[in-house]
Amino acid sequence: MSNYDFRFERGSDGVAVLTLDRPETLNSLTFDVYGQLERLFRDLEDDDTVKVVVLTGHGRGFCSGGSVEDIIGPLLETELDGTLAFTRMTGAVVRNMLRLSKPIVAAVNGIAAGAGAVLALASDLRVLAHSAKFAFLFTKVGLTGADMGAAWLLPKVVGTGRAMELLMLGDKVTAEEALRIGLANRVVADDQVLAESLALARRLAAGPGLALAMTKKMVWNEWPMDLEAAIEQEAQAQALLLRAHDHREFYNAWMEKREPRFLGR
User: Fold this and answer.
1) Considering the entire predicted model, what is its pTM?
2) Whole-number CA gyration radius for the chain
3) CA distance 150 to 93
4) In whole angstroms, what is the distance from residue 237 CA to residue 199 CA?
5) Integer Cα distance of 252 and 88 in angstroms
6) Per-residue pLDDT reduced to its tens digit, 139-164
7) Helix or strand or coil: residue 61?
8) pLDDT tens for residues 202-256?
9) Exposure letters 166-192 (e unless 16+ CB within 10 A, then b)
10) Helix (H) or strand (E) holding 102
11) Is residue 93 a contact partner of residue 148, using CB atoms and an 8 Å limit?
């Protein structure tokens, strides 16, 4: 854990909890934190001890976005190539989250603003505390709402019209509204958000990992495809999984009237 500017704790159940840990700034992000997140989500692909990641924040907020003092100020004094290197790094965080074959559950315990909103958006499931709020506030600070893949992701989750409104106006979205428009999967009492997220994560970790990984990959891969290409890709993927260990284990367990023991392969 000392290698990171956040907490990353692996559990014996295959669930790892990543806790952004700058509560005095509502867990704002720094250059170092962005870089560490980029590397961690890439490296987790080969970490067999982790099957599911829960992403949350310490204290009153999930993540307030990029630090004004630590990031915005220095960037204003940087040449264009340095600025572009930074924006590419932030996008790489989201790319690595989406490419990770393991589920990510966001436990949104407070405000998720700017880049924090995109981190939650890039997670596979979002559990919100009743008091949590989203704010895609990039345009409110004079930046494009299309940041870190937000303009690609958000329309896929809530639809183009709603995404345009959220990205252009930058207004806060309450937990109840997030649930109504599909931005949240569940809304729970404030003191239950981490427990509910961990329960979901443990359920996923105990499930067929290969099937979950293929499902995540297919959902994102099929967006630019036409129907024929999507059906063919699904046919090929399902043919492979029909011959995989976990499906055979399901069949054996069914015949033997017992619970299956999935190995994720």
Assistant:
1) 0.95
2) 19
3) 12
4) 28
5) 47
6) 999 999 999 999 999 999 999 999 99
7) coil
8) 999 999 999 999 999 999 999 999 999 999 999 999 999 999 999 999 999 999 9
9) bbeebeebbbeebbebebbbebbeeeb
10) none
11) yes
Contact 218, 120 (CB under 8 A): no
- The per-residue pLDDT for range 19-76, each reduced to its tens digit, is 999 999 999 999 999 999 999 999 999 999 999 999 999 999 999 999 988 998 898 8
Tokens for 111, please give them: 């405000």
Per-residue pLDDT for 2 more than 70?
Answer: no
pLDDT tier at 1 (50, 70, 90 boundaries)? very low
| Average pLDDT of the segment spanning 90-116 | 98
By CB neighbour count within 10 A (0-12 exposed, 13-18 middle, 19+ buried), where does 135 fall? buried
Are the C-beta atoms of 45 and 70 separated by less than 8 Å? no
8 A C-beta contact, residue 16 and residue 10: yes
Q: Look up residue 55 and give its two tokens.
A: 């992403």
Residues carrying CATH 3.90.226.10, the chain: 7-205
Helix (H, G, I), strand (E, B) or coil at 204: helix
Alpha carbons 33 and 225: distance in angstroms, whole number: 34
Asked whether the beta carbons of 91 and 153 are under 8 A apart, the reply is: no
| Max Cα distance, the chain (Å) | 67
Q: Which helix (H) or strand (E) holds 67?
A: none
> What are the DSSP calls for 106-175, one per residue?
EEE-SEEETHHHHHHHTSSEEEEETT-EEE--GGGGTS-S--TTHHHHHHHHH-HHHHHHHHHH--EEEH
CATH number of 7-205: 3.30.70.20, 1.10.10.10, 3.30.420.40, 3.90.226.10?
Answer: 3.90.226.10
Backbone angles phi, psi at 19, to 5 degrees: -115, 110
